[in-house]
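Checklist before submission:
- one chain only
- standard amino acids only
- sequence pasted in full

Submission:
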Amino acid sequence: MDYSKDCFAVMPFGKKPVQGNEIDFDWIYDNVFAPAIKAVPLPEGGSLEPRRTDKDFVTSDISVDMFRYLEYSRMVIADITGLNANVFYELGLRHRGRQSGTAILRQVQYEDKLPFDISHIKAFPYRYQPDADAAKAREDITTLLTNSVKEDRTDNIVQLALEQERQAPPADKIDDLLHDAEKAIRSMDPAKAVALYRDAIAKNPSNPIVRLKLALLLKDQGGKWPEVLEHCTEAVRLAPDWPDAWREKGIAEGKLKKADDAKASLQKAIELNPHDYDALASLAGVLKREADLEGSLKLYQQSTKESNGNTYPLLNELVLEAHLRGRLDLSKRGLQLKRSEKVRREHVNDKPPYDSPWCFFDLALLRLLQGDGQEFLKLTEDGCLNSNAAWMAKTFRDTLELLPADQFPAVNEGITYLKDAEEQLPS
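Returned file contents:
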């Protein structure tokens, strides 16, 4: 069988519950994925053909067809919405088998906490309701797949890591250290994981995945930015076509006030992956610190669009719009704000809170924008209690200081509280 025109869809079948909502994945395949795939032209002529094992199988064993599609298909799209175990299993098989031709998708309204093993991989966000969102999703997925087929660029860093592992001398094998580091992460002991990753890098410094995983852990532990930058710099040297490594390098450079370097790294990340809304938002942050607020606003707007309303770029876009225009018109933003609030409230209520302290600060800002000054102040306090460095409170204060106090009266009290908190938190 010729698989050179096939695009295999890895996704749940039928209707599945996700965070209390029922999602009809069959409808999504029939009305979003399949037509988007059929619209992708191939360089040699013709177009991609959508495949899904329950829709199109030719052997007596559906799993045999699945393995063949995962191994040989020109493209694979994997929808990780709902963190389905079968989807992750098949995605792992694809990454082990092919170094390119894999696109990861997720419905943006379900910002689930990703397993650490793939937390550094960006998933392409989409919505399928209402009909206008489904049409946009078809268009965006067609563009994504068209570019992927045309460029055939490595999108699977696993293959690079395995190749370097094969070339490493026997004395440099670090399997036990990496295994113990993963156990430490799952046991909520990041300090131990950091120590183990450092030891692994000392024994074999040429693994870009370990470099980036360590950088992400250090970043989450309060921003040990010089070491974060060190490992990200080495990761992009080892894997120059890895957009996620360029993005994290740019973020670290921005935190260290290396603005020109940060802009160059983030622009490289966007060049390699134009749909990386995190890179777009991070570049917007650099421009904001340089007081290029109009340029920053444009990038935040682009990031919000690419992410289909992710909370981080959306809130920054609204704050800058309020600052530059003097007032903020939220009459057409109600649905976006409610979606973001639902996600962030779930993160705040997680045990432990997910993405702390930012989940508290984001939810505080959402409540402020919607006129609830009392909950805004309570969540601001909770965010400070969950901060481990003064820069975290200052980051939120800098955002609040851009808002017009006449439209949001509680903002001044929040700013005062954050100033006091900054003096009491570690520098």
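Reviewer check: The beta strands are 6-10, 15-18, 21-24, 49-51, 75-79, 102-107, 124-126.
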